Amino acid sequence: VFENPFPFPVRIQTKAREGRLYVHLEGAGARPHTVETEQVRVLPAGVERVPDARLAPGEEVVERAPRDGQVVRVVVTAPDGTRTRRLVRYGRQAMTLRVATAELPPGDEAAPAPLAGPGEEAVGGVLALLVDSARR
Q: Which of 71, 82, 100, 135 could join 40 in a cystine, given CB atoms 3.0 to 4.6 angstroms apart?
C-alpha cells in the first residue's frame, strides 16, 4: 500500500529488468528516489501436514499452495545521493497438505516460519520500504 506523504501529487513508474525492480517517483518540485533490488536467496516454502480423519487411508489433499519466500537487498538512493541499504525478508508460505490420519507420523507437523530473521525486516513490499525511507 502506498500512502503519499507529500503535499503534492506523485507519479509512480516501476520497471523490472534482469532480476531488479526499479521504482521512479515524480511530483511537482520533487526529485525521484531510485530503488534497486537484488535477490540474495530463496527461502523454500516447506510442507505443513495436517491430519484429517475424513480422508481415506493414503489420501492427501493440497489445501494451500506453497509460495517460496526470499531475502532481497534493497538500495534506495535519494535525490541528494544518500543511499539507504536494507535486507528485506519476504515470508514464505508453506504448502498445507491434509493427510489421512493413519498416514501422519507423530510429531510430523511443520512449525510456522518466522516472518523476519536476524538483521532482516519483514514488509509488505518495496513501496512500503520507499515510503518509510522517504520519511526519515
A: 71
